[in-house]
């Protein structure tokens, strides 16, 4: 299945290239999704700090301002105010896409996201919806430190009224962004900076995925690894290494953490009875904890072994390369966690 | 004196508009003691000249954003009193189907897409609809009302900065009633005039007596004309006083807050009485009382109908979390 495969290297891509499939990077997929949105939807506009500058938000908005003019807008350094501005523009039927180069700027906009955009449809008795898309990029490395590398997606889990997507592949980067645009509700799309260079099959035409439907990235029978965003390719790598040693791992990517595809996760865990969860965020009170809680609510006996989380430690990200290296979990940690669940 | 230029027809319309606001809220005060209107009410009594004077210059298509103190602005934009009362009673026929209460009225058909009860929360919304109008070229203007307290929020500065930068068709109306709940302005801001700060954002600013409806009308006339001509945003600071407490039907002095002397001095400057005196003979004998009686009859019918209307089904709160389908 080309559209659900995670390509880890040239060998994975080669098969798809032989089939004549179109290969694009994650960032190219985001760029072409936005081009589609701006071409097809006269009510759509992009706004964000520096989105029309030479770097083009790590390349994800490059060239759009040249084609679409004032519909690709730079903005003042006013995250909360401008979130309010685009929320109200959405309330009268426009389709704004607000872009944050770093996830860490979202706390500046908490009031407008949490108190306003998320609640507008409910507070209006269903009369007015907010078709708003917010893109935010999770950074990592090069000493980004504590204010340029956070994964804050789970903060929004306790706010009813928001949808939260975390694309892990180029295909999903395009399809989830297009789905967010078509959704009449506020959708937060968390991208990972280290996925930007990843490549994989991406269809030329506009494709969408239902928000709240996950995917089994790799079939397996001994343990389930649930992973999002940049942890998905790492989980695939870990699963391959474990398979070589006789352990069959199923990798589930929920794609969205709100709504959360609990049917898919329950089905997988019901089969394997073992569970590891991976996140690009600190451990405590994240989506991993929510998944386990909901599993317990459904079936308290579903797990036959200890459950493990592979997340960032509950610490602000350090700057020094030595500390960064120690901070981020990776393939070895996932392998170790799977082994613990099987013990 | 600007008010001398107003004709009596306009003055009578303004008076009628203010009586409707005043009596609408006095009916709430009468009903509130029964404890069945279960919503926190933030009353506007004493400030009516501002909503009346500004909204007289709006078209139905223009956008309006108000605050937790929202009733008068909605009425001035044409809201049906019944749908407001029904909302306050938590009924399905309410403007937000019982999901918003008194602080979040919504009338999309009247250009009121929603209402924030976070102080300063609605200021960027008026800029947002103005941005939409600017991108669409639809000729609408947006008006956003807020209090002096909201000018202390970051959204005030972020919104004025963006509106000034993009020359957006938005009118900011700061209703400076001197208090945030019971904290006086002097305890919260280094200068007494909010308008001074607006000037720094390249915005056409005016300060008026917010109890003089004709002065407000004149200021709003020039502000809306400036905006409709495509010149960019405008700002009016209207100086006024809130008679009731921040929330609820009582006057603050009854709780040991704000002095009764201060309130009495402001009651001497009642915006309705001020205009009534100016109208003098133009009002005719018994005309004022007849106007009040007519409005009262409609309001009594509306509030009684609202109090008897059915509650929403419990499932509704689940159904309205998300809009279904695609946009």
Q: What is the terminal separation of chain B in angstroms?
A: 51 Å
Number of helices of chain A: 12
Please count the helical segments of chain B.
12
- Beta percentage of chain A is 15-25%
The beta-strand count of chain A equals 14
Estimate the helix proportion of chain A, in percent.
25-40%
Detail the poorly predicted runs of chain B.
none
What does the main sheet of chain B amount to? 5 strands, parallel
- Strand content of chain B is 5-15%
The count of β-strands of chain B is 7
List unreliable stretches of 5+ residues of chain A. Answer: none
* Cα shape of chain B: globular
Decide which structural class fits the backbone of chain A: alpha/beta
- How are the strands of the biggest sheet of chain A laid out side by side? 3-2-4-5-7-6-12
What is the percent of helical residues of chain B? 40-55%
Task: Please provide a written account of the structure.
The complex is a heterodimer of chains A (343) and B (327). Chain A is of the alpha/beta class and 343 residues long. Chain A is globular and about 55 Å long. Helices cover 36% and strands 19% of the residues of chain A. The model of chain B has no long low-confidence stretch (mean pLDDT 96). Chain B has 12 helices and 7 strands. In chain B, 42% of the residues lie in helices and 10% in strands. In chain B, helix 1 (8-32) crosses helix 2 (48-55) and helix 2 packs parallel to helix 8 (213-228). With 327 residues, chain B is an alpha/beta fold. The relative contact order of chain B is 0.17. Classes of the chains: A alpha/beta (343), B alpha/beta (327). At the A-B interface, helix 4, helix 5 and helix 6 of A face helix 5, helix 6 and helix 12 of B.
């Amino acid at each position: 299945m080309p559209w659900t495969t995670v390509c880890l290297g040239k060998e994975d891509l080669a098969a798809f290239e032989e089939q004549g499939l179109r290969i694009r990077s994650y960032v190219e997929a985001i760029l072409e999704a936005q081009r589609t949105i701006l071409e097809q939807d006269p009510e759509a506009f992009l706004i964000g700090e520096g989105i029309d500058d030479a770097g083009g938000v790590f390349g994800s908005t490059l060239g759009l301002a040249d084609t679409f003019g004032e519909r690709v807008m730079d903005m003042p350094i006013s995250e909360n105010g401008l979130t309010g501005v685009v929320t109200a523009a959405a309330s009268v039927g426009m389709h704004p896409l607000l872009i944050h180069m770093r996830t860490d700027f979202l706390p500046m906009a908490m009031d407008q996201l949490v108190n306003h955009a998320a609640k507008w449809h409910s507070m209006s008795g269903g009369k007015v919806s907010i078709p708003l898309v917010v893109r935010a990029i999770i950074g990592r490395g090069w000493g980004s430190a504590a204010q340029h590398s956070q994964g804050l997606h789970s903060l929004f889990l306790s706010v009813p009224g928001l949808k939260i997507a975390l694309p892990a592949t180029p295909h999903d980067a395009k399809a989830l962004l297009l789905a967010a645009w078509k959704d009449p509700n506020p959708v937060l799309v968390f991208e990972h900076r280290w996925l930007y260079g990843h490549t994989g099959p991406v269809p030329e035409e506009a494709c969408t995925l239902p928000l709240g439907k996950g995917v089994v990235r790799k079939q397996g029978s001994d343990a389930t690894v649930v992973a999002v965003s940049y942890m998905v390719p790492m989980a695939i790598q870990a699963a391959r290494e474990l398979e070589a040693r006789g352990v069959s791992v199923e990798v589930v990517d929920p794609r969205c953490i709100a709504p959360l595809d609990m049917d898919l996760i329950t089905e997988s865990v019901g089969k394997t009875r073992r569970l590891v969860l991976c996140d690009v965020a600190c451990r405590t009170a994240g989506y991993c904890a929510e998944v386990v809680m909901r599993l317990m609510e459904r079936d308290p006996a579903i797990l036959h072994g200890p459950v493990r989380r592979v997340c960032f430690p509950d610490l602000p990200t350090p700057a020094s390369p030595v500390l960064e290296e120690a901070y981020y979990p990776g393939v070895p940690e996932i392998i170790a966690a799977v082994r613990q669940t099987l013990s | 004196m600007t008010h001398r230029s107003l004709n009596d027809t306009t003055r009578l319309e303004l008076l009628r508009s203010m009586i409707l606001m005043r009596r609408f809220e006095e009916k709430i005060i009468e009903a509130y003691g029964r404890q069945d209107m279960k919503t926190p009410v933030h009353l506007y009594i004493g400030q009516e000249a501002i909503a009346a004077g500004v909204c007289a210059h709006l078209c139905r298509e223009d956008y309006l954003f108000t605050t937790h103190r929202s009733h008068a602005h909605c009425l001035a934009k044409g809201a049906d009193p019944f749908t407001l009362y029904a909302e306050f009673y938590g009924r399905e026929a309410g403007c937000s189907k019982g999901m918003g209460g008194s602080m979040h009225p919504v009338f999309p058909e009247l250009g009121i897409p929603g209402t924030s009860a976070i102080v300063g929360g609605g200021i960027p919304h008026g800029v947002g609809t103005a941005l939409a109008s600017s991108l669409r070229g639809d000729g609408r203007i947006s008006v956003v009302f807020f209090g002096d307290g909201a000018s202390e929020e970051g959204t005030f500065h972020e919104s004025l900065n963006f509106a000034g930068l993009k020359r957006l068709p938005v009118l900011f109306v700061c209703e400076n009633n001197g208090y945030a709940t019971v904290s006086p302005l002097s305890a919260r801001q280094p200068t007494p005039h909010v308008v001074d700060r607006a000037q720094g954002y390249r915005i056409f600013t005016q300060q008026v007596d917010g109890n003089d409806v004709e002065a407000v009308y004149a200021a709003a006339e020039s502000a809306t004309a400036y905006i409709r001509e495509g010149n960019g945003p405008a700002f009016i600071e209207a100086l006024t006083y809130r008679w009731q407490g921040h929330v609820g039907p009582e006057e603050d002095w009854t709780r040991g807050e704000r002095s009764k002397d201060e309130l009495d001095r402001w009651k001497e400057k009642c915006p309705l009485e001020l205009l009534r005196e100016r109208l003098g003979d133009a009002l005719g004998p018994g005309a004022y009382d007849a106007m009040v009686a007519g409005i009262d009859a409609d309001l009594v019918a509306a509030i009684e109908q609202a109090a008897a209307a059915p509650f929403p089904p419990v499932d509704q709160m689940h159904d309205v979390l998300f809009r279904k389908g695609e946009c």
